[in-house]
Amino acid sequence: MASKKRSRSNHDEAQLKTGEGSNCTAVAVFPIKKNEIDTIDYEKTSASKFFENFVALRQPCVLRGIFGGKHKKLSPKEVGSILGECIVEVEKRADQARSFGQNRATDLTTHMPIKELLEKLQDPSTKDLFYLSTQQGESHEIIKNKLTESAIVPNTLSLSGNLILESSNLWMGAASDSRSGLHHDFHDNFYCLHAGLKTFVLYPPTAPIPVYGAIEKIYPNGLISYQSNPTRADGSPLDPQSGESEVDENAEHGAVYS
């Protein structure tokens, strides 16, 4: 079970991934400057040093020590108590041979209250068949608001400086062996592992992997624009037929922690 919070930054070179949890590991593929990903102590690192050493350089790191003190892990019981009545879109598969994270086709998803999902994840006959991932629209806003109102997910972290929460997502499953498809996010993010085991395989934006089709351009801040859906350096859609011009690639963009 994991929650992820995202933040925007202005700089380039490697996607920032931060992880928390004793069983959270990260592996860099095509590392930019180092062969290893740094592990840092949350309580002993200042926001300015974190920005200077990781956010500004787009360098990933593993955080230790987020949980404990002001922040605590979210247990399945607390998920049920806080979010139990929320109706969410859940990925489903017919058997363990199929993968999660394929698409949002109606035959691969279903809707149910989170409390019902928790029951299925605790049932040996169904625990491998369902997975909660990113929500869209109203469900996303409800989860974000309830988690922040309960103080489980803070509106800010000491490491995020003056950045504010932009979005919060919850992933939850009980399959013995499952994986997410290769993807990338626009925002930098804090990924907090609350239970279980998670291994990240990270690629920099410069890796020649057209995740979403032919690449049009890679901006200095690391954002990738695709030919099928061109964007400006700040992530806003770009319509070439309208004559709209690109923003300054090196311009400062608004920063939002989420």
The SSE string, one letter per element, is EEEEHEHEEHEHEEEEE
* Total beta strand runs: 13
Global geometry: globular
* Major β-sheet profile: 9 strands, mixed
Structural class: alpha/beta
What would the average pLDDT be, to the nearest integer? 76
Give the C-alpha Rg: 19 Å
Strand order in space, largest sheet: 4-5-2-10-1-9-8-6-7
Stretches with pLDDT under 50, minimum 5 residues: 5-19, 247-258
Strand content: 15-25%
Name the helicity range.
10-25%
Distance N to C terminus:
18 Å
Account of the protein in words:
With 258 residues, the chain is of the alpha/beta class. It has 4 helices and 13 strands. The protein has helices at residues 47-55, 76-83, 114-122, 137-149, and strands spanning 2-7, 17-20, 24-28, 38-41, 61-64, 87-92, 109-113, 130-132, 168-173, 188-193, 198-202, 215-218, 224-226. Strands 4-5-2-10-1-9-8-6-7 form a 9-stranded mixed beta sheet. A two-stranded parallel sheet has the order 3-11. Strand 4, helix 1 (47-55) and strand 5 (61-64) form a beta-alpha-beta unit. The two termini are 18 Å apart. The relative contact order is 0.24. Mean pLDDT is 76; it is low at 5-19 and 247-258.
Quickly list its features.
alpha/beta, nine-stranded mixed beta sheet, two-stranded parallel ribbon, globular, disordered C terminus
Compile the SSE list and pairings.
Elements: E1 2-7, E2 17-20, E3 24-28, E4 38-41, H1 47-55, E5 61-64, H2 76-83, E6 87-92, E7 109-113, H3 114-122, E8 130-132, H4 137-149, E9 168-173, E10 188-193, E11 198-202, E12 215-218, E13 224-226
Parallel strand pairs: 2-5, 2-10, 3-11, 4-5
Antiparallel strand pairs: 1-9, 1-10, 6-7, 6-8, 8-9, 12-13
